[in-house]
Amino acid sequence: MAAAAPLLPLAVSLGDPAGVGPELFVHAWAQRGEAGLAPFFVAGGSQVLHEAAQGCGLPVPIIAISDPAEAIDAFAHGLPVLGAEGCGWHPGAPDADGAHLALDSLTRAAGLARDGVAGAIVTGPIAKSHLARIGFTQPGQTEFVADACGVAHSDAVMMLAGPSLRTVPLTVHCPLADVPGLISRALIENKARIVARALIRDFGISQPRIAIAGLNPHAGEDGRMGSEDREVIAPAIAALQAEGLAVTGPHPADALFAPHARAGFDVALCMYHDQALIPIKALDFDEGVNVTLGLPIVRTSPDHGTAFAIAGKGLAHPGATIAALRMAGACAARRQGTV
Ligand SMILES: NC(=O)C1=CN([C@@H]2O[C@H](COP(=O)(O)OP(=O)(O)OC[C@H]3O[C@@H](n4cnc5c(N)ncnc54)[C@H](O)[C@@H]3O)[C@@H](O)[C@H]2O)C=CC1
Ligand SMILES: NCC(=O)COP(=O)(O)O
């Protein structure tokens, strides 16, 4: 498979070293040729990666580099790692040392992408609750990377993308009970505009077709099953249409992901986390990518989490990690004008 080639290597953050992240990045490097991956390096964690490669029975040399630029040549010979060794590999046993390594890796990888010495950041999965115990204050890595880039959280938009569809949760890591109060015209219109710009710039879709889901059953059934669809979502859609955006809805969410419906849009904007993530994980779990739109840098991640229960057991599928690396390379190449 021919790779889109950005000029700069991709910076990878390790994720929680007790999760599936380290073994998946090792597998991704081993499959770099057939998967068409652009050169990448991991920020820290060389001991974890070395032990993970051994644990997987993969001959993956770990190559210490002192500058991201060295990753381009080193990548052909081994998995380049920039910076500190960190702790050892203890799959399935998260602890504070591992959380510190994950946060340090994320901080450095984000900084390198922001400073223009890495072409993108690809984040390994973290457990938000474990990192919170050592001082991680953001709801997730999306907001962390937004902060690193000086972008308001409201302008950093999570999109899940797989071979079958793309979805955007308009509200993300919040209690379901808070969702109706958080849905506003301003939220829908702002995120729809960011999504449209990003699909044009990073994905080469010249006129993105955006379907917007309703909140309530049957998109409210003319107000009989909730008022938000009629009073908030529909006016936002009308305003976006008046700007010339190809927006439709509010669509009853239950039928929005049927095959014939999916053929009619490039992205679905959903009202809450599970409305967006359930269809992606049902259809595309092993190739699903979480990509942050609206940033000055490219950021992707596999769509799954740390999966502590299967870490180190040879059960974790590398497909989503490979897809995240491939998408980061393609978006970075598009931004750098090399495709
Ligand atoms: N991008 C990120 O950093 C994400 C982090 N998380 C974090 O991960 C932790 C665990 O969350 P869960 O809801 O349990 O989700 P999870 O994705 O870790 O696990 C859900 C299910 O999918 C399986 N699974 C996950 N990745 C897999 C892979 N590559 N191959 C095969 N099976 C796989 C797991 O074994 C489990 O059965 C939480 O602390 C959460 O905050 C969750 C989602 C994304
Ligand atoms: N459910 C998606 C998720 O948890 C990923 O969040 P983020 O860490 O990428 O912000």
**What do we call the CATH homologous superfamily of the largest domain?**
Isopropylmalate Dehydrogenase
Characterize the overall form. globular
Give, in order, the helices and strands: EHHEHEHEHEHHEEHHEHEHEHEEH
- Give the distinct bound molecules: 1,4-dihydronicotinamide adenine dinucleotide, ligand LD2JLWAY
Strand content: 15-25%
Q: What's the CATH architecture of the largest domain?
A: 3-Layer(aba) Sandwich
CATH topology of the largest domain: Isopropylmalate Dehydrogenase
Q: Strand order of the main beta sheet, please? A: 3-4-2-1-5-12-11-6-7-10-8-9
Main β-sheet: number of strands, strand sense, barrel status? 12 strands, mixed
Helix content: 25-40%
How many beta-strand segments? 12
Question: Overview of this structure, please?
Answer:
A divalent metal cation binds at residues 173, 218, 273. It is an enzyme of class 1 (oxidoreductase). GO terms for molecular function: 4-hydroxythreonine-4-phosphate dehydrogenase activity; cobalt ion binding; magnesium ion binding; NAD binding; zinc ion binding. Homodimer. With 339 residues, the protein is of the alpha/beta class. It has 2 domains: 1-151 and 295-339, 3-Layer(aba) Sandwich (Isopropylmalate Dehydrogenase); 157-294, Isopropylmalate Dehydrogenase, CATH 3.40.718. The protein has 13 helices and 12 strands. Strands 3-4-2-1-5-12-11-6-7-10-8-9 form a 12-stranded mixed beta sheet, with helices on both faces. α1 packs across α13 (319-336). The chain is globular. The model has no long low-confidence stretch (mean pLDDT 96). Bound molecules: 1,4-dihydronicotinamide adenine dinucleotide (NAI) and ligand LD2JLWAY. Residues 20, 125-129, 141, 290, 301, 304-307, 309-310, 316-317, 320 line the site of 1,4-dihydronicotinamide adenine dinucleotide (NAI). Residues 20, 125-129, 141, 290, 301, 304-307, 309-310, 316-317, 320 line the site of 1,4-dihydronicotinamide adenine dinucleotide.
